[in-house]
Amino acid sequence: MSEKYKFKGYRIDGVAACRLAYQYFEKAREFGMPPLLARLPQKQDFIGRKVSEPYAVQLAGEFDIWDKRNPDADTFQMGLRSGELSAHHWDNLLSQGLEERPDGARVTHSEAMVEALLKDGRLLQSYQRRSDEAQMRNSFVVEFEGFKFLALNTPAKGSLGFASKDVPETGHDALLKFNWSGQQWDVSMYHAKHRTDIDLSVIAVKYGGGGHKGACGFRAKTLPFVNSAA
What we know:
Layout (H helix, E strand, L loop, with lengths): L16 H15 L11 H5 L7 H10 L7 H9 L6 H7 L4 E3 L5 E3 H27 L4 E5 L2 E7 L20 E7 L4 E7 L9 H6 L3 E2 L3 E6 L10
Parallel strand pairs: 4-5
Antiparallel strand pairs: 1-2, 3-4, 5-6, 6-8, 7-8
Helix pairs in contact: 1-3, 3-4, 4-6, 5-6
């Protein structure tokens, strides 16, 4: 192992840093700093959603690693981007304290704040979906590293814009975005909804980048797939 990776810490491949950080500091609050790693949740605890954490942290973490089991993760991101959040808003998003709804139901501050952001997110998604469908008319399929990628030249981040064509009938294995920054190409790769078995990070690492299995990327002076467009 490289020397730069020989340090102590709480790291789990395939689990977002925000979820790990929340657990680390919550356990530190309970048991003292630094918390024993044996007291911290392990990978299957996160995958099975058996950890105690604010809903906002779970949604942000699952979006980060492209875990698509819960559609609220994508909607939550749209809500987060709908406006500037104050320190008070962030406190509520991370709070497990309880509040009472008008109907008498009791929910955590985090759940109540997430519900409000999901409402805003759904409105934005409706608009974004129409815009993305128009942009996807410029997409194409390219063969790269043994897979067929549905590709689009755009500075936009994330895979959500592919939704209108991210279906098996399009004939692709994965998704790819690329954009010229003025000095280099920024390339991002994402899982297609019907092919989550591919470890795209292996390709990213090969070209000097990195990231998660289903969401990763690299930078290059020339595009390695430019001559293979189909």
